[in-house]
Amino acid sequence: MEIFKGIPAIRYEGADSKNPLAFKFYDADRVILGKKMSEHLPFAMAWWHNLCATGVDMFGRGTADKSFGAEPGTMAHAKAKVDAGFEFMQKMGIRYFCWHDVDLVPEADDIKETNRRLDEISDYILVKMKETGIKCLWGTANMFGNPRFMNGAGSTNSADVFAFAAAQVKKALDITVKLGGRGYVFWGGREGYETLLNTDVKFEQENIARLMHMAVDYGRSIGFTGDFYIEPKPKEPMKHQYDFDAATAIGFLRAHGLDKDFKLNIEANHATLAGHTFEHDLRISAINGMLGSIDANQGDAHLGWDTDEFPFDVYTATMAMYEILKAGGLTGGFNFDAKNRRPSYTYEDMFEGYILGMDTFALGLIKAAALIEDGRLDAFVQERYASFRDTEIGKKIVSGKTDLKELAAYADKLGAPALPGSGKQEALESVVNSVLYKGC
Ligand code: XLS
Ligand code: NI
Ligand code: NI
Question: Which residues pair with 140 in a beta bridge?
């Protein structure tokens, strides 16, 4: 039974199209730098925002009807969401999806019953996957919504809650493997703290690492060959989140011997909450060999929380795609961890949100490829460090063949170095604009 009646399969119609239900820039088969757009951009649907979130906020009820013809809280509704999700992805041409355990089924009072429901729904999802060729990008366990996780999951003060979290991770890994997921995510939900007055930070971090090690051991034992991911976020819900940003998460993974099995899932809105740009956290991940997947969304410069908007900022998307292309692409994908604004409550809005996001990343891809082909940014950066390549003293520094004494003697002879050369920021920003708006 068709759920999104009257909404056709979304096609590419080009930039001149005025059809809100068409792609203007995302042309799946268009080849950019030798690869199809659809291969550069493995987009994924986020089960929670698209199929579950109704627009509830602190001040009011939901505005969007996501019952899809069934009674919320029932298994019939869980199945209706599967139907809606697969119809949505097919109409959008989206080939992957991401989920939390409790997005798929209503959580029961007893974990045994919740797990039984997960078995049932994953059987149903598998059938749909076979019919459509749609795949699972990643799965995760929601260890932040239930009140039992008020102090975190791995970082909780309660051994029973820790054990319960472990059970959820085990089941979510089982389902991820059953659905052939490429990855498994840990977003540290409430893994953080409110006040040092009641918190043993060292112990909590060690316990998070213990949970992650157990997940790796179990995952590998049941045949999970994909990547585990940490999704950094600096705050919200906790005041201090342990996975503040990419650099912090990488330090944590290395300190606890988890860096061989984990990469990062970088969310745009989380990077900006940390006071960085999206592209900063992508670069930090990439240079450390840790760039795995991304949560493609956008924050609001005027609000200090995770607004999870569909990305429309082409400049940021371009800079993000520049980092991703230079890193050789993602082993994961582009999960739209994004939701419609509360007053955008219709089925059309769901499609238009994804159209906006996919078109924005398509533009980012096209423009990032153009920046790479233009070459001026790369050439400038190369030249900027030339003294380490072309001078005797520079070569000695880089090859580790000098020491403070020799450098001090060199400086003595020099008296004072010349200024290091202009950074040319404005000229380079102008290069970006000229590539972005070529032909205007
Ligand atoms: C919340 C996170 C969450 C993760 C998955 O801010 O972005 O949605 O992506 O648990
Ligand atoms: Ni996210
Ligand atoms: Ni988020």
Answer: 100
* pLDDT tens-digit series, residues 122-142: 999 999 999 999 999 999 999
Question: DSSP secondary-structure letter at 60?
Answer: B
State the average pLDDT over residues 197-209. Answer: 98
For residue 152, give the nearest of 140, 137, 167, 164 by alpha carbon.
164
Q: Is the Cα dihedral 108, 114, 116, 119 positive or negative?
A: positive
In sequence order, the 6+-apart residues with CB closer than 8 A to the CB of 10 are 21, 22, 23, 91, 92, 93, 351, 355
Burial class (CB in 10 A: 0-12, 13-18, 19+), 218: middle
pTM of the model: 0.98
Ligand positioned closest to the Cα atom of 185 = 1
- Could you tell me if 115 and 174 are in contact, meaning their C-beta atoms sit under 8 angstroms apart? no
Positions marked catalytic: 100, 103
pLDDT at residue 276, rounded to an integer: 98
What string of H, E and C letters represents the secondary structure of 238-280?
CCEECCCCHHHHHHHHHHCCCCCCEEEEEEHHHHHHCCCCHHH
Q: Which residue type sits at 133?
A: G
- Around ligand 1, the residues with Cβ closer than 6 Å are 100, 140, 185, 187, 231, 233, 267, 295, 306, 337
The residue whose CB lies within 8 Å of the most ligand 1 atoms, and thus the one to mutate among 231, 273, 294, is 231
